[in-house]
């Protein structure tokens, strides 16, 4: 009842205090424009709960058995400030730029995500509906394998061998809700407080955030046109005990460069020499345009030092939260225990649908289609950049992926660009911008068609000119 709740709230907030007499039912009804019977029912309910006390011929009072409350209005708080009146603090994640983004009335310029208009979600969820129509589907509605749907893991075993040369079995594949969860679980199983991890600079900030969150320490290495500087890895490992190295060798994030064959071999040798794990994030392996993609480091993995991470979110849609990692037995066991704490399991129905989508050949057909479209978009976007913005920035045409790394000649121009774009209806996420030392920004082209690219580049040109 609204009146019941209102009186309880008034007592909590100190507007009504123990021993205070309330107006009679008729008067209270007139004041609140309520029926007398409604008021009486509320008083009886509150009396039975112990909030009020009613006495014949005396009236109704706020119970004297309630503690006196010192009410202070709860002001708007931000993370890290004590909630007023409690003395407690909320954890402040200093490495998080923002908790959400408002995409209303703006066009998001992403860092390289698929065009959801091309996503074959009707086909994928057709398998979902088909699974629900079968008699045995109820097994998927119960608690399932923590490591993910067994059918999908066995399908991935064959798929990874055929497409990436990775030899594994279903027992070494762990299904997650996207690659970011895979990274978090994998790093969490290995990292202890103050352990050193190597990441690149510039690099994928989310990984640095995870390491910081887990209490690890970060040693950064540089990136050039051949990928990460492997020589720096060796020098760091001579001085510090490194537990883990994170790398995106196929298309480095954010610069898009590919790790050269020579450095791949050297890196694997260093992992053995200095006894560290390599976390290989192969987020867009299937999107390569100039020639056949180089096989992952994990395909050369003979002693279990490479943990391989993949995802279907990049080739299908960000909403399809299905990722995975391939790892040795001891990591799988630790990941199993951690998953039970944070998520228990994924989405068995969706995972089974993805398995059917792969086995039917629909995934390969979709990839052939999108590679052709994204190759055209890459070429067209790069031609627009060259013809319209070359006096302001430079870039190298990427061999694959869904984005271009742009290096601005003037750092101040890049610094002001997001605000000026927002005025024109474009939201450029600041996480994609690396001003200090690099003057670079990663811009996705895959989610834009030709007309949308024309408008965006024309807007940028007007701002810069």
TrEMBL record:
Domain of life: Bacteria
Domain HTH gntR-type: 1-65
Keywords attached to this entry: Aminotransferase, DNA-binding, Pyridoxal phosphate, Transcription, Transcription regulation, Transferase
InterPro entries recorded: Aminotransferase_I/II_large, HTH_trans_reg/aminotransferase, PyrdxlP-dep_Trfase, PyrdxlP-dep_Trfase_major, Tscrpt_reg_HTH_GntR, WH-like_DNA-bd_sf, WH_DNA-bd_sf
UniProt entry tagged with the keyword Hydrolase: no
SUPFAM superfamilies: PLP-dependent transferases, Winged helix' DNA-binding domain
Record GO terms (molecular function): DNA binding; DNA-binding transcription factor activity; pyridoxal phosphate binding; transaminase activity
Family: In the C-terminal section; belongs to the class-I pyridoxal-phosphate-dependent aminotransferase family.
This protein's name: PLP-dependent aminotransferase family protein
Organism the protein comes from: Sinomicrobium weinanense
């Amino acid at each position: 009842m609204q009146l019941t709740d209102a009186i309880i709230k008034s007592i909590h907030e100190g507007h009504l205090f123990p021993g205070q007499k309330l107006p009679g039912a008729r008067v209270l009804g007139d004041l609140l424009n309520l029926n007398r019977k409604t008021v009486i029912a509320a008083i009886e309910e509150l009396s039975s709960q112990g909030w009020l006390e009613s006495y014949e011929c005396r009236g109704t009072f706020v119970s004297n058995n309630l503690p006196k409350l010192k009410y202070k209005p709860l002001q708007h708080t931000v993370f890290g400030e004590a909630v007023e009146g409690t003395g407690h603090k909320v954890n402040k994640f200093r490495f998080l730029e923002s908790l959400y983004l408002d995409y209303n009335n703006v066009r998001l310029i992403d860092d390289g995500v698929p065009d959801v208009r091309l996503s074959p979600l009707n086909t994928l969820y057709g398998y979902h509906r088909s699974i629900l129509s079968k008699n045995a589907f109820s097994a998927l509605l119960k608690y399932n394998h923590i490591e993910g749907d067994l059918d999908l893991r066995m399908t991935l075993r064959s798929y990874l061998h055929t497409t990436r040369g990775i030899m594994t079995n279903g027992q070494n594949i762990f299904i997650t809700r996207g690659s970011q969860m895979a990274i978090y679980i994998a790093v969490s199983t290995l990292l202890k407080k103050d352990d050193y991890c190597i990441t690149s600079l510039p690099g994928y900030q989310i990984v640095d955030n995870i390491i910081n969150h887990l209490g690890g320490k970060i040693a950064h290495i540089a990136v050039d046109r051949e990928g990460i500087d492997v020589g720096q890895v060796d020098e760091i490992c001579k001085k510090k005990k490194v537990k883990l190295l994170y790398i995106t060798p196929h298309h480095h994030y954010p610069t898009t460069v590919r790790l050269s064959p020579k450095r791949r071999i050297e890196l694997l040798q260093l992992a053995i020499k200095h006894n560290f794990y390599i976390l290989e994030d192969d987020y867009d392996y299937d999107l390569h345009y100039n020639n056949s993609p180089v096989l992952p480091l994990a395909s050369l993995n003979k002693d279990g030092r490479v943990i391989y991470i993949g995802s279907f979110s990049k080739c299908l849609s960000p909403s399809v939260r299905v990722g995975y990692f391939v790892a040795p037995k001891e990591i799988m066991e630790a990941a199993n225990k951690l998953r039970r704490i944070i998520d228990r399991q994924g989405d068995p129905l969706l995972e089974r649908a993805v398995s059917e989508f792969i086995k039917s050949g629909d995934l390969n057909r979709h990839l052939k289609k999108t590679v052709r479209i994204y190759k055209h978009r890459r070429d067209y976007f790069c031609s627009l950049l060259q013809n319209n913005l070359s006096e302001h920035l430079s870039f190298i045409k990427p061999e694959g992926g869904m984005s271009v790394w742009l290096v601005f000649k003037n750092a101040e121009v890049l610094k002001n660009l997001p605000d000026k774009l927002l005025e024109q209806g474009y939201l450029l996420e600041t996480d994609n911008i690396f001003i200090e030392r690099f003057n670079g920004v990663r811009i996705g082209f895959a989610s834009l068609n030709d007309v949308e690219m024309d408008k965006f580049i024309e807007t940028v040109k007007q701002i810069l000119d």
